[in-house]
Design a protein that fits this description.
Layout lengths: L1 H17 L1 H23 L39 H8 L14 H9 L9 H12 L10 E7 L11 H4 L8 E7 L11 H16 L6 E6 L8 H11 L6 E5 L5 H9 L8 H4 L16 E4 L5 H15 L8 H13 L2 E2 L19 H4 L22 H4 L4 E4 L8 H12 L2 H7 L8 E5 L3 E5 L3 E7 L4 E7 L5 E5 H11 L11 H7 L3 E9 L8 E5 L3 E6 L5 E9 L4 E4 L29 E2 L7
Parallel strand pairs: 1-2, 1-4, 2-3, 4-7, 6-18
Antiparallel strand pairs: 5-7, 8-11, 9-10, 9-12, 10-16, 11-15, 13-16, 14-15, 14-17
């Protein structure tokens, strides 16, 4: 099995390298066609969105992505339409008026979920991160690295590259690895979090991070708040306010979401949420383009004591004792994830009610118009005083690191082929509900039109459990019909992604095969995960000592990974009854758990 896995990996690497030029050309061609279609649909660019090359760029950064605000080039980072740029920079406060603005790209991402075709070269992302980490220490000590790792993407491909970003003369004071997105992972057995933490620690050991002491490994959900209070307590106990902290990680690992969560917690200065805007968050990779930061609060003995008292008091509450607003908020989070946490604030008085100003004109503007601020709202943005930040330690959000090795890079190029709607379908944002199927030799499984697994040889049926976005369809067919199904339904509603019919599929790379041999270890424990590029994975469970010959397909230029041991070995047991005259089992959603809340019954 190990030899077959190594051979399969080598085959995937060779295939990916050979198809690099074709994939890159297809990606560029498709992006150009998409841009042309948008230009035809929109007609000419409205005057309010026109750039003005005569205006020099500002020294103010976009609060959403960190890019330098400018109105000279609409295709460059930080672009603000010239009319809006002038109205803000020529006001009574001068260029300081731009501090209330975000760039056009962040506005469209936040309000329309629309991603502009703006991409920085991978080396530019790395240069920004490396330059920040190689700065001379401001407080006589190197920074603490808070590395954010997506547990769904284990083994993490960027972690081994981390050492190359650091300066040999200014070593990092420590490394704290955070396994994020655990809220999306179903609990396949008791102690699954302990097993996940062990897998993250094993990834750290394999990365060979010599010279950077590993402080701890924590599992969190930056989105639902699970594990965040424990992470803050760990940071305040071990790091206190010794130096700066950098959030690092691959694209789409959840750094900006964690940045926003920490910004509204006990980790930042009490006025920071009123002064600093939240980072822009979207499913589109590479949203953050430069550094964002907030000042870290000094965890004095008194503050730590008051914080611990708050946590103890909250831990004694049951869900019935929460306010109606808190219950509604928690119920919404429980729909999104299996693990939920309550992130509170000790050092700032909570507002009794939230007041929202409703302005229908702001919510109904066309994407071809530039939104105009409400004329009745002219509040000055709060700023820190000099004394508040003169000796502050800062927590920095950084651009996502693009994977360096060629095989994984092409995964990102294929993601570039996906439209905004397709990206939202492929990347899971809610708790993943496993879907299990029992297949006989000669049967085929499609995961949308992004992946395919053929069961070629085996003595008995085997179980195939899909762990992927709930919005991606799974279709079961036979070997004799599989090619015809793909030809007919790729780009159509049955397979859903990609979408756009025959013309769309002409731009999309063909599926290429890779043979895999596995040996079963029992009917309740998966032997391996077959990771289908960025679409998700399929856990394979087979009878003990039964040999399986499979053939897996992914888009040309992407990596197919056989992960042994599997991330969730008992995943096939999370299922309902077998559906009559079908290969599928009914799905079963494990219950959600709320952290720091007293349970009853």
């Amino acid at each position: 099995s190990e030899a077959a896995t190594a051979s399969a990996a080598a085959t995937a690497s060779a295939a990916a390298t050979a198809s690099a030029a074709a994939t890159a050309a297809a990606a560029a061609h498709y992006r150009e066609r998409q841009a042309g279609r948008r230009r035809l649909e929109r007609g000419s660019v409205s005057a309010s969105r026109q750039p003005d090359p005569s205006v020099p760029p500002s020294d103010v950064s976009c609060s959403g992505c960190g890019a330098q605000l400018q109105c000279r080039d609409c295709a460059a980072p930080g672009f603000v339409p010239a009319e809006k740029y002038r109205s803000l920079s020529e006001g009574p406060t001068g260029v300081a008026g731009l501090r209330t603005a975000v760039c056009q790209r962040c506005w469209l991402l936040a309000h329309h979920g629309q991603a502009l075709g703006l991409r920085l070269p991978p080396e530019q992302h790395r240069e920004v991160v490396s330059a920040a980490l190689r700065r001379p220490p401001r407080h006589g000590r190197g920074p603490l690295l808070l590395y954010i790792l997506d547990v769904l993407e284990l083994p993490d491909p960027v972690l081994p590259q981390l050492q190359g970003l650091l300066s040999p003369d200014i070593p990092a004071a420590g490394l704290l690895v955070v396994g994020n997105k655990v809220d999306l992972v179903p609990a396949d057995s008791p102690g699954h979090l302990r097993r996940l933490r062990g897998r993250v620690m094993a990834a750290c050991a394999q990365a060979g991070l010599s010279g950077t002491p590993l402080v701890d490994v924590r599992l969190v959900s930056a989105k639902t708040g699970f594990g965040i209070e424990g992470l803050i307590s760990r940071l305040q106990r071990s790091w206190r306010c010794t130096g700066d902290v950098y959030l690092l990680g691959a694209t789409n690992s959840g750094k900006s979401t964690l940045f926003n969560t920490l910004l509204c917690s006990d980790y930042c200065k009490s006025r920071a949420p009123d002064v600093i805007d939240r980072a822009t968050v979207s499913p589109w990779p590479g949203t953050t383009l430069n550094l964002l930061k907030f000042p870290i609060i000094n965890p004095t003995c008194d503050r730590i004591f008051r914080r611990q008292e708050r946590l103890k008091e909250e831990a004694t509450k049951t869900e019935h004792e929460l306010s109606s607003e808190e219950k509604k908020y928690l119920n919404n989070l429980k729909k999104q994830g299996y693990l939920v946490g309550r992130v509170g604030r000790t050092f700032q008085r909570q507002k009794s009610s939230s007041v929202f100003e409703f302005d229908p004109d702001m919510l109904s503007y066309s994407t071809d118009e530039d939104p105009k601020p409400s004329p009745k709202k002219h509040e000055e943005k709060e700023e820190f005083t000099h004394n508040e930040v003169k000796d502050a330690r800062w927590c920095f959000d950084t651009p996502g690191i693009i994977k360096e090795n060629c095989v994984v890079q092409f995964i990102l190029q294929v993601l570039n082929l996906l439209t905004e709607k397709e990206v939202k379908l492929v990347l899971p944002t809610h708790a993943i509900i496993p879907r299990t199927f029992i297949l006989k030799p000669g049967m085929v499984m499609f995961l949308a039109a992004l992946g395919r697994i053929d069961y070629l040889e085996g003595e008995k049926p085997a179980w195939f459990s899909v762990v992927a976005s709930n919005l991606l369809p799974v279709h079961i067919s036979t070997l004799s019909n599989a090619d015809a199904v793909y030809e007919k339904h790729a780009g159509q509603e049955l397979l859903k992604v990609p979408m756009g019919g025959e013309e769309r599929m002409k731009e999309f790379p063909p599926l290429v095969p890779q043979d895999i041999t596995l040996k079963g270890i029992g009917t309740t424990e998966a032997v391996a995960d077959i990771k289908l590029s960025s679409a998700g994975w399929v856990a394979v469970t087979a009878h003990e000592e039964q040999e399986l010959l499979l053939r897996a397909y992914t888009p040309q230029g992407t990596a197919l990974v056989v992960r042994e041991p599997p991330l969730l070995p008992s995943i096939s047991t999370i299922r309902g009854a077998r559906i009559a005259r079908s290969a599928a089992y009914r799905t079963k959603r494990p219950p959600s758990l709320v952290e720091n809340l007293k349970t009853t019954g």
